[in-house]
Amino acid sequence: MKRLCLLAVAALLTVTAASAAPPTHPLPSFVGLAIADKNRPEEDRALDAQRKPAEVLRFSGIKPGDIVVDLMPGKGYYTRLFSRMVGSKGKVYALQPAEMDKIAPKGLESVRGFAGKEGYANVTVLVEPVNELKLPEPVDVIWTSQNYHDLHDPFMGSPDMAKLDKSLFDALKPGGTLIVLDHAAADGTGVSKTNDLHRIDPAAVKSELTAVGFQFDSESDALRNPADDHSKGIRDPSVKGNTDRFIYKFRKP
């Protein structure tokens, strides 16, 4: 009887401990090493508190050996991290629509400054018209951060989103993933706030991508901010760097 009581107590303690502290997945070492990369500029490191790379990159599922596309890479914050994560057996394509390169050339100048160089030899820059985005080979992951909304803006030539999204779908290997990280607009606003506030309704992203064959896989709340009421532009001092951002993962069957 005494032994049975002890076993019952032990079982109860196990359940209680599990409820109080649910298990967490350890950060893959290659993610941690990418973040700690000594070649990352201070400008990038200063953004880490806002961008939470450990949580975000863990969710991405990118791993050594993968072929990754950083679509509209900005100054290369994620490009550098992906380069380290995929390693020497992987590749990273920094893919910039020509239309964006014309209005924001400084970002790509930054990426060109390290692409193919020591430490980032696996990075290749591609510049193509938005309606003709093509990749030299099938890829494992397409990533776009804080820029999917820009594809709907007049300065991009208002591309046919169904055609563009289908080109992304076709570029992926079967089972490959597309990850969209962007500034959330208010529910029900669709794509109406992409130009003035530089935000997009997450439901609109899901609708567009599933319409061309993507399966919605999962989402991360690592960058969600309930204090952001979605009424201000992303550069407003009250929300700049801390907007409510969603991260959606889609899979090609």
TrEMBL record:
Residues 63-184 form the Methyltransferase domain. Residues 1-20 form the signal peptide. Gene3D superfamilies: Vaccinia Virus protein VP39. InterPro entries: Methyltranfer_dom, S-AdoMet-dep_MeTrfase_Alr7345, SAM-dependent_MTases_sf. One of its GO terms (biological process) is methylation. Keywords: Methyltransferase, Signal, Transferase. Residues 226-241 have a biased composition (Basic and acidic residues). It comes from the Bacteria. GO terms for molecular function: methyltransferase activity. Residues 221-241 are annotated as: Disordered. This is Class I SAM-dependent methyltransferase. It comes from Dyella kyungheensis.
